[in-house]
Amino acid sequence: MEAAAAKAPRQLPRARLAAAAPCPAVNGGCGVLVFFAALVAGAIVSACWMSASARLQVTPITPAATAIPTKARNAAKGPDPAPGPPRFAGVATSTNQTPHELLPPAPSPAGAAAPAPRECPAYFRWIHEDLRPWRDTGVTLDAVERARRYAPKFRITVVAGRLYVARYGRCFQTRDVFTQWGILQLLRRYPGRVPDLDLMFDCEDLPVVGAADQPPPLFRYCGSEATLDIPLPDWSFWGWPELNIKPWEALRREIEEGNAMASWTDRAPYAYWKGNPNVGAGRRFLLRCNASGERDWNARIYAQDWGKELRRGFRESDLSKQCTHRYKVYIEGRGWSVSEKYILACDSVALMVRPRFHDFFSRGLAPLRHYWPVRDRGAAMCRSIKFAVDWGNAHPDKAREIGRNASRFVREELAMGRVYDYMFHLLAEYARLLRYRPAVPPGAAEVTVESMARGRRGLERQFMMDTVVAADGGAVGEGPCRLPPPFSAQELEALRRERAEVVRQVEAWEDHSADTRRA
Ligand SMILES: *[C@@H]1O[C@H](CO)[C@@H](O)[C@H](O)[C@H]1NC(C)=O
Ligand SMILES: *[C@@H]1O[C@H](CO)[C@@H](O)[C@H](O)[C@H]1NC(C)=O
């Protein structure tokens, strides 16, 4: 069935789009028609791609599957009912008491037959693609060590469920700390299930591994079409203390609560962006789309004043209070941007400036289904934004649907439980490729919840406490979701072609509307 669905897209969208194309251009009426045609085509075309998510909707994800061990938190507070005391308060002072002992095991439903795990979101299929370069050769110790030529900042080794880290360099802020913390929580969430492994990790923004004869495997936060770096979830899922960005699960809920308070129609009918404009040429282009005296591109662009925000603890950058506009621009910085998930969570329409990089989940997003594609160059970017906003304001129901689909994606397919599942499957699949038995490398030290929490204060400590997973897994006996199969070559080709087609279609509407205006 999947194969059949995958073949369909080859002719369908073309035929439909072509059929819609000759309609006369009256007030953008053509664009609308074509849009619906594209939607229909998209629905059919993506049937295979979306089949996993469709199944997902049948079995809704329960909050219990997510990573915050509420039970553990409450229990660990012990007799003290006041909020605030850290869940592993004893850790820093007592070295013989492990968090394991502080956190009670979750009760397991006695005698309950384990249900078959549900299938993971469709974007998990990219795990197979990311590991494809090593599928036939496997990963040798030599290959792993050859990755040193790219100056990775640390090496992660898991042996018998314990985490060892060898440090080779420094990472910006606490990226490395919260990345390692995340892997540590994964080991606690699925105790005894993460196989032994050994990998090199770099915490710089840009992917660097070129397609060579024998590329070494290198993990980081993002990848691109042109490189072979393997993306793992970034540190911000466990929090970004320097910017006062809370761990994802908590922030996601806050944003969701905020969404319920501000309906789409009540939001400002413009495209909003706030961030650091000094990283990447695209962001400098974006500044020019700001409303000026002469021209209103429907964009409201704000440059973050880092000095001021730093002094004020980034209070004015509270992400849960940034869902005030109907449209939100996503634009990459130097590499991918962690802002993507916060923007998608908003219920606003994400106007996505054509990205060059992907993180682990963004390949699960489809144009006009989860976001509106925007051009990435010069004045065309401003025209794209203006067109998107005008279109959305004229078609509020369709626009809201795109916004809601994005926030549903984030809620269901990017809940913290799925993030852990992604890490689990990626690492397990990687471990299967290893052609040697991982051993603790020279210079590596064991990393534990205690060792990481030791001496940390303020938000760093707070975010760790907020995301620590009960040592028994805290996942109430639920294992990871089931990894969907690899794409066939045809499926992959169809998917790429279909998405490119939708983007080209949107660009054609823009050009058309610009032509009409000029005429
Ligand atoms: C964009 O325009 C608004 C309103 O005129 C202004 O407040 C804001 O500072 C401008 N943004 C930039 C980056 O100049
Ligand atoms: C939103 O998602 C639903 C369910 O996946 C889908 O049927 C619908 O076509 C999507 N809307 C758009 C605009 O793509």
UniProtKB/TrEMBL annotation:
Leader sequence segment: none
UniProt keywords, alphabetically: Membrane, Transmembrane, Transmembrane helix
Ranges of residues in domain Glycosyl transferase CAP10: 193-437
Residue span of region Disordered: 73-99
Segments crossing the lipid bilayer: 32-52
InterPro entries, A to Z: CAP10, O-Glucosyltr/Glycosyltrsf_90
Entry protein name: Glycosyl transferase CAP10 domain-containing protein
Origin species: Panicum virgatum (Blackwell switchgrass)
The organism's taxonomic lineage, starting at the top: Eukaryota, Viridiplantae, Streptophyta, Embryophyta, Tracheophyta
